[in-house]
Fold:
Amino acid sequence: FSIINITDPDLRAKICALQPNNPQLATCSTLLIFVADLHRAKLASEAYQGAFSAAGDPDSLISAVTDTALAAENTAIAAESLGYGICFVGGIRLIAPHIVELLALPKHTFPLFGLCIGIPDTEMQLKPKLPENAIYSENRYPAAATQIQALADYESTMTAFAEAREKLPFREKFARYYSNTYAPDNLPLLHQQGFLTLKF
Structure:
């Protein structure tokens, strides 16, 4: 993974203009862009005349994304432990081709998300999490009936929580999201960047 700190105000403004629904990109104290990165692995491979053919395999993409997500979560935990607020911005991948260009990302890299860090200007309530039985089980995946009930219970919890930015009931939000394709097709960019190139 790589982490790019966006310190140039003009660059920050360009990124924010591409993501107008995330104004915190322009106003947060620190904006980090987290990048899945196999470029260094390519350079290491070249030093020993490696074929680097595994870079186009889906497992390499999964590994790079996993490593990047773990690094981002650790960064968020560290920031929060120091008293800062954080906000992940998944919308970065909606503008991934622009981010590749703006940040001069080389082949075998892909921008996944941003992390805004700063001092919150409003006090936010701690958002309730899914019930434990929806996300944790032992020895096998939970039964569908357990998941269905847990999701219904959580929807009631979130409705009572009444967070202003939540405009839809919890399950309806997911029903709408997964009924449509909101993101641009990043498959061509993944191919361009050297990911998912193997034919099956």
Q: What stands out?
A: The chain has a mean pLDDT of 93.
